[in-house]
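User: Before I run my own analysis I want an independent prediction to cross-check against. Here's the chain; please return only the structure tokens and, at the end, one sentence I can use as a sanity check.
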Amino acid sequence: MVGSIFGWLALLFAGMPVGFSLIFVALVFLVLTNSTGINFAAQQMIGGIDNFTLLAVPFFVLTGHLMNSAGITERIFNFAKSLVGHITGSLGHVNIMASLLFSGMSGSALADAGGLGQLEIKSMRDAKYDDDFAGGLTAASCIIGPLVPPSVPLVIYGVVSNTSIGALFLAGAIPGLLCCVALMVMSYFICKKRGYMTLPKATRREQLKSFKEAFLSLLTPVIIIGGIFSGKFTPTEAAVVSSLYALFLGLVVYKQLTLSSLVDILKETVNTTAVVALMVMGVTVFGWIVAREQLPQMLADYFLTISDNPLVLLLLINLLLLFLGTFIESLALLLLLVPFLVPVAAAVGIDPVHFGVMAILNLMIGILTPPMGMALYVVSRVGDIPFHTLTRGVMPLLVPLFIVLALVAIFPQFTLLLPQMFLGYGQ
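Assistant: Structure tokens:
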């Protein structure tokens, strides 16, 4: 079994897609071990994606693409500029605030980086901000999206670990806000040191105008979150409603969507969904074999021989995720390691909601670290910034994110407070 895992890593580094490599390794293992389980491999793969909650993923992805193409990102950016553009740090704060607002609609880090990124970098360049800071901050701020609801990674974690999606959505809100504040503090000091310009303070009339223009867009997270926690929608139904609402805004209200752009949006959504579905299928059949071989239990026993202190185990798990996240795509890592690590966390009394938010924050930091930093590649492409320049710019911004990660790991109250208040979670 260990040989199969190393074989999968070899295929991954050779360039084979994650889903295909997992399925290939699983089938080879079953053939070489003369296992009768190969008859059930296809059933396991289909069963992995035959899940109502997972239907939320394509619709949240569709919502993000619709928002990017419907003129919504510019309205959000202008609203954020009217709120915080006059503070020292100016467009740096605007960048972070816009990412926070947009994240409540798309739930995806890369959708944020690809959608808002081009607009944010252009505005910062026009104001004479250096490329390393403009690109690095754009990449760093995009990780807020997967923490605050709606969040595609939180949905996937909830499905794989059989954890309440509603509780996870609430649990990610405070860590997401902490990341926002921490990045703003670092942005303030960097901008002050480099002497970047500050925008004039917006008048009340300008603030009101930008709010009116962005108001219908800002209703999207209200519809999603309010619908879920009022009991009107399941997370999947909320995803469908949000995509229909984004379509309505783009076609009827803002009138910036065309038939050709809709076709392109649907193609992008199908491509993204297919990649996720293939990963889920591969992880399901691979995870089934791993569970049958009792590898999670052996891993839990091994960790417990090191220490049964929850903080020590969280430190070890965070170091493991940070190391692997440097080389392996974050979603693949989430799907692969959750079945291993959740039993380890449960064995020492770590709450699955707390653990899930911490793990996703860790993995989102991973998309900022080379050589696999996917957010860096996206920002490099949309902003036409060399990869090494982005790497230099993002490094100081990792410091506040690591501090937030440490706080979230040590103090579960940051994640569990809202689920306990609004859902009675754990009571």
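Sanity check: The chain has one domain: 2-423.
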